[in-house]
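Appendix B, record 7
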Amino acid sequence: MTTIQLSEKGRFRLWRPRFDDLIITSEEQFRIKLNYIHYNPVKAGLAENPEDWKYSSACSWILGIPGLLPIEKDFAYTD
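Structure tokens (predicted):
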């Protein structure tokens, strides 16, 4: 997370100044990114396991139990 810094005009930036987009082209790449996202609450100390975090889709992916929002597991990768 980026720290909040006041600019000369008194404005502040909460998010990072830029982000990188990535086109997912394989199931392996998708799994790597999905695991990274699922483990964020664990790394932050908010959950012991990815599937314990209420706002994660990990429970659906790992245990097959529906979460707060439905997820789509069947989709095509582009190249």
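Remarks on this record: The chain has a mean pLDDT of 80. The chain is about 30% helix and 0% strand.
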